[in-house]
């Protein structure tokens, strides 16, 4: 099963946008994220519908954040993307009349629901500002290591 990496991609784009002064075109964002501008436009369109970004047209146009980083949670972004399945694993449903399959699926469904609820609770507690602070700390450590001649991986 293919993983849905849109949330990761969106977070990447939004952090670039937060660091950039002014709008960023789909083409520039696509280069940052190593994807196609069409993919960027499709995903940013979902965020625009949720009121999280805005688009401006013209030569100097592009995408901009519409809200402060502190006001956007990972949960909101997950919801804006259509609440994609958070787990790639699942259960079989080939013999719905089989009592063994029913028992296995019931237990797995409960476990998946509990795990997803915990993950979404954590997503609700993390903001874009938290991610920006994490990036800033890593960037500062990288810069200080580079100045000291320390190789970093």
UniProtKB/TrEMBL annotation:
PANTHER family: HTH-TYPE TRANSCRIPTIONAL REGULATOR YWGB-RELATED, WINGED HELIX-TURN-HELIX TRANSCRIPTIONAL REGULATOR, RRF2 FAMILY. It comes from the Bacteria. GO terms for molecular function: DNA-binding transcription factor activity. It holds the Pfam family Rrf2. GO terms for cellular component: cytosol. PROSITE patterns: HTH_RRF2_2 (PS51197). Signal peptide: none annotated. InterPro entries: Tscrpt_reg_Rrf2, WH-like_DNA-bd_sf, WH_DNA-bd_sf. This is Transcriptional regulator, BadM/Rrf2 family.
């Amino acid at each position: 099963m293919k993983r849905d990496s849109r949330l990761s991609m969106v977070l990447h784009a939004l952090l670039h946008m937060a660091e950039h002064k002014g709008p960023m075109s789909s083409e520039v964002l696509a280069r940052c994220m190593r994807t196609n501008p069409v993919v960027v436009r499709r995903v940013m369109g979902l965020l625009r519908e949720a009121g999280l970004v805005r688009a401006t047209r013209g030569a100097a146009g592009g995408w901009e954040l519409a809200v402060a980083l502190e006001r956007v949670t990972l949960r909101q972004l997950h919801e804006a993307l259509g609440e994609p399945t958070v787990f790639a694993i699942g259960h079989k449903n080939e013999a719905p009349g089989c009592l063994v399959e029913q028992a296995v699926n019931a237990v797995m469904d409960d476990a998946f629901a509990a795990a997803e609820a915990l993950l979404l609770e954590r997503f609700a507690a993390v903001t874009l500002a938290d991610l920006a602070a994490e990036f800033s700390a890593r960037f500062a450590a990288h810069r200080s290591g580079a100045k000291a001649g320390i190789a970093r991986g």
